Amino acid sequence: MLITARLQPLRSVDKLRSAVKRGEQFDSPLELLAHLLSDQGEVLTQFLRKTSVNVDRIEDQLLSQRLSNNRSELGAMRRVLVRLQRLLALEPGSLMRLLHKPPQWLREQDVQALRQSIEESSLVINDLTALGERIKLLQEEIAANLNEQSSRTLFTLTVVTVLALPINIVAGFFGMNVGGVPLASDPEGFWILVALVATFTLVAGRWAFRKRGDY
Predict the structure, then answer these.
(1) Which of 7, 67, 93, 174 has its CA 20 to 30 A from that of 203?
(2) Residues near 172 by Cβ (< 8 Å), separated by ≥ 6?
(3) What is the Cα–Cα distance from 180 to 185, expressed in whole angstroms?
(4) What angle do CA 84, 85, 89 make, to 5 degrees?
(5) Angle between helices 29-63 and 11-21 (to 10 degrees)
(6) Burial, 118: exposed, middle or buried (Cβ in 10 Å; 0-12, 13-18, 19+)?
(7) Do 58 and 73 contact (CB within 8 A), yes or no?
């Protein structure tokens, strides 16, 4: 008898219950356990396929530079995978230690069926780990892209500030209401200042856009 306090039934246990309702018989408790592990593996395999499809979709969006809220979606999927790994990681090892020296009352066919179910569960857990690592790599790549975009934005703001600096300096100096302002009595003084500011701005702009190609 399986007793649980969950409001929603576990899918693997629910599949086992449906099999019993269909009239499927089990000759021993170990055979029942092997069937439960097999159902659990099938449920996890379906979950892995669904998650892999979502990861493939996010990876395609990443390659095409069409990211939206995929960071939160990847984080949610990774949390579920980590939770499943923590719950299932010890299960195959514990059962394999039992089968390493099985009790005498265990039948050989039950031992073989349970060993096969354990091997399938181990493969599923390995797939969970591999998919979790893949999601982690995608998260790191998305973070690197965001950092690169932030660096480009900061560089653009720096370039704009540098290009506007000569104009601000000249306007500040020549806007002082004091005597001795250079070129104040020169009829060509305005155009000389315009030429100086334009030359400095062009040189700074050329240097800045040349540096931009390195990013």
Answers:
(1) 174
(2) none
(3) 10
(4) 125
(5) 130
(6) buried
(7) yes
pLDDT of residue 70: 72
Burial class (CB in 10 A: 0-12, 13-18, 19+), 34: buried
Taking only the tens place, the pLDDT of each residue in 42-84 is 888 888 899 889 888 888 888 777 666 677 888 888 888 888 8
Confidence of residue 213 (pLDDT cuts 50, 70, 90): low
Q: What is the mean pLDDT of the chain?
A: 77
Whether the predicted model's global pTM rises above the 0.70 cut:
no
Q: Is 25 left (phi over 0), alpha (psi -120 to 50) or beta?
A: beta
Name the burial class of residue 23, with classes exposed (0-12), middle (13-18) and buried (19+) by CB atoms within 10 angstroms of its CB.
exposed
Q: Where are the alpha helices (DSSP H) in 25-107?
A: 29-63, 70-88, 90-100
